[in-house]
Design a protein that fits this description.
It is a single chain. The protein has 12 helices and 8 strands. The chain is α/β, with parallel strands linked by helices and 319 residues long. It has a single domain, classed as Rossmann fold. Strands 1-2-4-3-5-6-7-8 form an 8-stranded mixed beta sheet, with helices on both faces. Helix 1 links the parallel strand 3 and strand 4. Helix 2 packs across helix 3 and helix 7 crosses helix 8. The radius of gyration is 18 Å and the shape is globular.
């Protein structure tokens, strides 16, 4: 696959964007803790099918700008970056693919900049209309007596110190624990709230084939160079989202949308006793369907690129 590296001016500094192919624009938004590289399989597939496919390093990641302030990582700020990239690459409205935190960023990009985006595919995290109570406050109540990673991330410098001690080793444990290859309870294992994230997370040897050593090294090198402060600040900025998003509280996602997830994704069970994938189109005005891929975990576009690409292509053909 032939790619081009672009820089687009964002509100807080330049954004690194990888571009392949020619045709209507698909813009891919990654999550935590990933990179534009996470979309390599989708970029190759859809560039060969007549699309321009672009993936940005989200603010705080990779070769993009890394402001220090927590308020630089609200959904409003990150959606503004995505809209700037879309405008720089295409005069016509783009299709968005978003995974993990990239899914809410993509949803809110479409919500706040509807003229720029004509459809949204969300991976691993369904759309929920914004409201007055941030998820982190719900998590602090539900997980008041035991460990939950988002609660652990709230205190600055704590998770940074743990993860930056050996980024590649930390990422290997995180990627495996949330994958379909790990025991279902790996990510949400019951452990004391005062331990670190990596406590109890295994690093397999060898790693499953979907994350070869050379791919893991790409992530390790990027986080070794750029650190985790910006990526973790997205979790801390949740408390600021509610007020900034007040004008769109309760709003359905208007654009055509779909959802793709792994059947073994821990995100399904973040709220005990609930399946968050049970009705992923509930907040969408034009929902085109959900695909749950068997035996796959959270990293759906990397663990099962073929099945993921087929589902995305079906969605695109229906637009």
């Amino acid at each position: 696959m032939k790619t081009q590296q672009r820089e687009v001016a964002g509100a807080a500094g330049n954004l690194a964007v990888t571009v392949a192919g020619e045709g209507p624009l698909i813009l891919c938004v990654h999550g935590w803790p990933e990179l534009a590289y996470s979309w390599r399989h989708q970029m190759a597939y859809f560039a060969d099918r007549g699309y321009t496919v672009a993936a940005l390093d989200v603010r705080g990641y990779g070769a993009s700008a890394k402001p220090e302030a927590i308020e630089a990582y609200t959904l409003t700020a990150l959606a503004g970056d995505v809209a700037r990239v879309a405008a720089a690459l295409s005069a016509a409205p783009a299709v968005l693919f978003g995974h993990d935190w990239g899914a809410p960023i993509a949803y809110h990009s479409a919500l706040l900049h509807p003229e720029r985006f004509r459809a949204v595919a969300g991976l691993s995290v369904p759309y929920a209309p914004p409201g007055p109570v941030p998820f982190i406050e719900v998590a602090e109540t539900i997980y008041a007596e035991r460990f939950f990673y988002q609660n652990y991330f709230q205190a600055p410098d704590v998770a940074e110190a743990e993860l930056e001690a050996d980024p590649e080793a930390a990422l290997a444990r995180i990627y495996f624990a949330l994958s379909g290859d790990a025991p279902l309870a790996s990510w949400l294992q019951i452990k004391p709230k005062d331990v670190g994230l990596l406590e109890g997370l295994a690093r397999p040897d060898p790693f499953p084939a979907w994350m070869p050593a050379e791919a893991l090294a790409v992530y390790g090198d990027a986080f070794r160079a750029g650190g985790f402060r910006g990526p973790l600040n997205r979790y801390r900025a949740q408390r600021l989202d509610a007020e900034q998003l007040r004008p769109v509280h309760g709003q359905l996602l208007a654009q055509p949308s779909c959802f793709i997830g792994g059947e073994r994704d821990a995100v399904r069970h973040f709220l005990p006793g609930m399946d968050l994938y049970a009705d992923p189109g509930a907040g969408c005005a034009d929902f085109r369907g959900a695909t749950l891929i068997p035996d796959i975990g959270h990293w759906v576009q990397q663990e099962a690129p073929d099945a993921c690409n087929v589902a995305l292509e079906v969605f695109l053909r229906g637009l």
